[in-house]
Design goal:
Helix content is 59%, strand content 0%. The protein is mainly α. The chain has a domain of 176 residues. This is PBS lyase.
Length: 705
């Protein structure tokens, strides 16, 4: 166990820096770098990088390395606090390169980690309470580093005040940011910021000065800040940048509801020029640059979906195409967060499929395709875009309708899959969250007769980018079951092709069932030398196709379930074999214990039920997964698997009803963490939970929210 360092000791960087300041001007060689340097870095790494900042030929790389070294992924290293006085002095030298970036780093070292989202409740928070309770690997309180860095800024306040008149606007903006984070700065700081604001001409610097003054006032609990910022933002005589920054500051300074008049202001002043201005203001995180000012602003308002939706609607009607596009990103984000606002936001996106500007239509299409079944209420409006002249908009529209199983997607989807060139940008270059077409076939099972030949031809030719869709097409075929019988020959050939996910192909053949009998000899040949994971799929597929050898299949799967490196897959397949697996009950029960991974316990529980019909020992295991706190374990793949199994078990799974009901009644989505398509994921989860509740309690009508 790591022991917490004593305050005021030799590991307390606050006291060390105070002693260095008392000794006079900072000197690199006087700093005890080695004492605070992690063992994986050379002791002279930070001072070496600081020296290199003076060299124009190495300054850019040295600064990038310094960011990584002292502010890695938003967390400040102790050596970062020690570097602050030197960063400030280098930035004060007019001949030094990248002076604004140096000031920004010096300021950031004193800040909490603020990746993710900016909100009115957090933008002015420099240190989190959690930092006061967290220690690093050497027992040092994390908050000590931030405090030491902020004290260093305060100690050099006079130097920074002098830079408020620097000819470089980026320097002036970052000076304001640094001074705003100073710990208990002298009154001269506020006076200097006000004096500069009175004469400042740069839009970004004016906004930064307003934010800095407001943050300092909030920090010292000055109640006048609310009236001061209100006077600035309501006055139409003030420049838009000042009004906008003052409105943000007012929101940070009070918990009062967002006034309707402020929403009018945002709709009026948010334009490309304001976006460019705010891009040069140090306060917002990278979300503003990646998602756009409009999307950032909607999140900034906090968890008030009715107000956020109002602002989204106003911004989506902006005369500026770039603002409308950003508003659509915000619309999807709002739908991804709140179930009750999904239909309204999806309708807004569908309406913008008919925008006059192609870039806006593309943004709408890229987000609608991620909504999956949630786009159903807007299906007619979406289908009206099938004649869009933009090839990307058309392609996304086809896929969106295919996700709905809409008959209007049949012929366009056949056309799309027949085209030589892959119609979408590469995911890594995609500007809207890297959407992909996903499983375009699952909901199109009723039209398999028309689409199967096209899908087979597409799988046979995966050139020109189409290889990226191969896995999704295979997954879709597995959902078609026997309706994919026309693909058996191709699937059999794919088993021998290079760069093929054989397990996915085998699953497809298994789901097709008896019509895939021609593939059995190939399955047998592959089984002779298959690794355990593939072998499990092969023996199970053979049984699914032929109906023969259930006991032998169960024995092989049970043996594989006891081996290393196979995970829960053999247990999942063993459950499908049913009562023929009863002889292997001891193997299955051994994997019910808490020592096993959650997924293994889940699959073992269902396999035991499938083999023996036992519910007394299986339902509690499954229900326990749903009872885990969702704050830390979002509703993910393990949960959806459990829900499907509970639906199969039926009325004996009544113990899970409270957890299932709570999931359906929540307004905030509990989607899979990191999911690219949270709306679609959550809607499918709702449908699964609804089906499970109907199976368990058929007398209680329920439906997705």
């Amino acid at each position: 166990m790591i022991e917490i360092c004593e305050p005021g000791g030799e590991q307390d960087v606050r006291w060390v820096m105070a002693a260095l300041r008392a000794a006079g001007e900072p000197e690199l060689d006087a700093v005890p770098w080695a004492r605070f340097t992690d063992e994986c870095w050379p002791p002279d790494s930070v001072p070496g990088l600081l020296r290199a900042l003076y060299d124009p030929g190495h300054a850019c790389r040295s600064l990038a390395d310094l960011w990584t070294r002292v502010r890695n992924e938003g967390t400040s290293d102790v050596t970062g606090a020690l570097a602050v006085p030197f960063l400030l002095r280098i930035a004060a030298d007019p001949a030094a390169p990248q002076r604004a970036e140096l000031l920004n780093l010096a300021a950031e070292v004193g800040h909490r980690e603020h990746f993710g989202t900016d909100t009115r409740a957090s933008l002015f928070h420099v240190v989190d309470e959690q930092d006061r309770m967290t220690i690093d690997g050497y027992g040092r309180i994390v908050a000590w580093t931030c405090q030491a860095a902020r004290e260093a800024v305060t100690a050099d306040a006079v130097l920074l005040i002098g830079l408020l008149d620097d000819p470089d606007p980026a320097v002036r903006a970052n000076v304001a940011y640094a001074l705003a984070g100073a710990l208990m700065p002298p009154p001269e700081v506020t006076a200097a910021l006000r004096e500069r604001l009175a004469v400042e001409t740069s839009l970004a610097v004016r906004a930064s000065l307003v934010l800095a003054l407001a943050q300092l006032a909030v920090e010292r609990a000055d109640s006048d800040v609310v009236a001061w910022t209100a006077a600035l933002w309501v006055d139409p005589g003030n420049p838009p940048d000042v009004r906008f920054a003052a409105a943000l500051s007012w929101l940070c300074a009070t918990a009062e509801p967002v006034p309707d008049r402020m929403l009018d202001l945002f709709a009026e002043v948010v334009d490309p020029r304001m976006a460019e201005t705010m891009d040069d203001v140090p306060w917002p995180n990278d979300s503003l640059r990646h998602r756009g000012l409009a999307a950032w602003l909607v999140v900034f308002l906090g968890d008030v979906p009715e107000v956020q939706a109002d602002l989204v609607a106003r911004l989506a009607a902006s005369p500026h195409p770039s603002v409308r596009a950003c508003a659509l990103r915000a619309a999807y984000d709002l739908a991804a967060e709140w179930r009750s606002w999904t239909d309204e936001m999806i309708t807004l996106l569908a309406d913008r499929l008919h925008d006059t500007e192609p870039a806006v239509r593309r943004t709408a299409a890229r987000h609608l395709v991620r909504a999956g079944a949630a786009a159903a209420p807007a299906a007619d409006r979406i289908a009206a875009a099938l004649d869009d002249p933009d090839p990307e908009v058309w392609a996304w529209t086809v896929v969106t309708l295919a996700h709905l199983g809409d008959v209007r997607a049949v012929e366009p989807l056949a056309d799309l899959l027949s085209r030589p060139a892959y119609p979408w940008p590469e995911p890594r270059r995609h500007p809207d969250g890297s959407p992909d077409p996903g499983n375009v076939l699952s909901a199109m099972r009723p039209y398999a007769g028309r689409l199967a030949p096209v899908v087979v031809a597409r799988l046979a030719d995966s050139s020109n980018g189409w290889r990226r869709l191969r896995c999704e097409l295979l997954q879709g075929l597995s959902h078609w079951g026997e309706h994919a019988a026309g693909a058996v020959d191709l699937l059999t050939d794919l088993l021998s092709a290079p760069d093929t996910d054989r397990t996915k192909v085998v699953y497809c053949l298994a789901r097709i069932g008896p019509p895939a009998a021609a593939a059995v000899p190939v399955l047998d040949r592959l089984a002779a030398g298959a690794e355990p994971g593939l072998l499990a799929a092969l023996v199970w597929a053979r049984w699914r196709i032929t109906g023969e050898g259930a006991e032998d299949t169960a024995a092989t799967l049970a043996r594989l379930a006891t081996g290393a490196g196979t995970g829960s897959q053999p247990l999942r397949l063993l459950a499908d074999v049913g009562p023929a697996a009863a002889a292997h009950e001891p193997v299955i029960r051994a994997r019910l214990s808490a020592d096993n991974h959650t997924t293994t316990r889940v699959e073992a529980a269902f396999a035991l039920w499938g083999a023996t019909g036992n519910t007394a020992d299986t339902v509690p295991v499954l229900a326990a997964v749903l009872d885990e706190p969702w704050d830390w374990h979002p509703f993910g793949s393990a949960h959806t698997t459990v829900v499907g199994y509970l639906a199969r078990i039926g009325t004996a799974a009544a113990a899970a009803v409270p957890a299932l009901t709570a999931f359906l009644e929540a307004d905030r989505r509990l989607g899979l963490w990191g999911s690219k398509d949270p709306v679609d994921w959550d809607r499918r989860c709702q449908q699964s939970v609804t089906a499970a509740l109907r199976a368990i309690r058929p007398d209680v009508p329920r439906g997705p929210r």
